[in-house]
Specification:
2 copies of one chain form a homodimer. Helices cover about 40% and strands about 20% of the residues of chain A. Chain A is built from 11 helices and 10 strands.
Chain lengths: ~280, ~280
């Protein structure tokens, strides 16, 4: 396994690999790898001849007052885990080389896909995501790039962007990986206190409850959402950013649920912001 | 020579050519080819194994009330000229395939590079240019893309964008090609009446006069600009959009000229908008 920080070097390596017929699989991350990331790497290992992992805590997707500086980092551990998953190249650039002096170019997906849900809470977030992912994809030029479905809206935005910009390569979304008790894996889970960790189970329980209601025949969004809000508020310790029922492709809210409906949640547990999602009839 | 309208088809052709070691040279145009375009194609023919020409009148770079519908088109003539220049592939997409229903992604270069000069007169112009050029570059993935220096600011913006987005491949700018009497070649020259054609010579004469002043030792921008405005206004038939002296790299205005200074002009001759530029001490 090699660790490459220089953009030109990794780009040349990847273009050369492509030129000799290798299939490139790519997993872009912000590091502090957990089982969710590892599931992407294992799938990438199956699909690609050259497996590339990027680790870059991207400043442009953090808003003012968000946790950019506090974001957890442990490169040595990431390196070990990457090696165990069979990663060939770790791309590990610094912010100065990704955004050098005079940097001025931004990629935006416009409209409800980026202004709703996370976009409403974090207005510059997706512009940062689409800009850095475009750059990473033009640097690595993978045949397949793998993303987790925990960031459900991000995956939808990236699909839109890669299609719109005609970036070659397939975007693959893989299922959420959860702790034994159901909490979705997230690098941010380390922020949680013991009480917070316990309170955070309300997210997955809310998703389970909503799926049960739907499977029992309740198709009215407002009824399901009302129960969801009750469940999230029951402990009195969570603060809801949003809880919505949306079409899985357009992310537009739906009044009546169907097989394409997903529930999306964002809550604050203390100072820690957690998101989760799940299908209702899937 | 082949003509390909389908995006996937040309992308596959170009990726395959790259995979077998061919150098791809690319000339993106809006068609209605003139000697300026042909100079790009001839240079591209020298530099590339596969020479790709795109012809696409890009709606997103035209503002409201601009000449999108009237923009001159003559595909048969373009096809003949392309063949004479040794073009291998013409990429000739329609607007619906470049911007399909649901299209939502835009590439913007922010700051003075796009808000000054053409950007001040045509506020959405460069966003349209950078979006379509990003798409064309990700579709064709050329080793070298060739642009004319007549669109001087466009070239600077595209250089910024390709660098910022880490698009592989070199951006080459080639000199303005002029008619015998000095008028810069432009597809829009066909709009000019006989009188307008004559009046339009004021642009190149203004550039020549400014270069003479500079070579005679006048380095104060305001003096050179004042003479330039006088020359442009002398006939009473031109309307000045701008006349500026700028640093050739940043396009920031300069108070005192040097070897990096370029004069940039935009005027209306009747309803026809013409631009031109030239170095002062180059």
């Amino acid at each position: 396994m090699e660790i490459i920080s220089n953009i030109k070097e990794i780009q040349t390596r990847c273009l050369n690999a492509r030129a000799v017929g290798q299939i490139i699989a790519f997993v872009p991350t912000m590091g502090f790898l957990h089982e969710g990331h590892l599931s992407l790497l294992r799938e990438g290992r199956k699909r690609g001849d050259l497996l590339v992992l990027s680790i870059f805590v991207n400043p442009t997707q953090f808003g003012q007052g968000e946790d950019l500086d506090a974001y957890p980092r442990d490169f040595e551990r990431d390196e070990r885990l990457a090696r165990e998953c069979g990663v060939d190249l770790i791309f590990y650039p610094d912010a100065e080389s990704i955004y050098p002096p005079g940097y001025a170019t931004y990629v935006s997906v416009e409209g409800p896909l980026t202004t709703s849900l996370e976009g409403a809470c974090r207005p510059t977030h997706f512009r940062g995501v689409t800009t850095v992912v475009t750059k990473l994809l033009t640097i690595v030029m993978p045949h397949v790039a793998l993303f987790g479905r925990k960031d459900f809206q991000q995956l939808a935005v990236i699909r839109r962007m890669t299609k719109d910009l005609n970036l070659p390569g397939e975007i693959v979304g893989l299922p959420i990986v959860r702790e034994d008790d159901g909490l979705a894996m997230s690098s941010r889970n380390v922020y949680l206190s013991d009480d917070g960790r316990n309170d955070s189970l309300a997210l997955v329980e809310t998703l389970r409850q909503a799926a049960e209601m739907a499977q029992d025949g309740e198709l009215a969004s407002e009824k399901i959402l009302s129960s969801a809000r009750q469940r999230l508020n029951a402990g009195g310790t969570l603060s809801i950013d949003y809880v919505k029922l949306c079409n899985a492709h357009t992310l537009e809210e739906v009044a009546t649920i169907d097989h394409n409906t997903v529930m999306l949640l964002a809550v604050k547990v203390g100072k820690t912001r957690l998101i989760d999602n799940g299908p209702l009839l899937g």
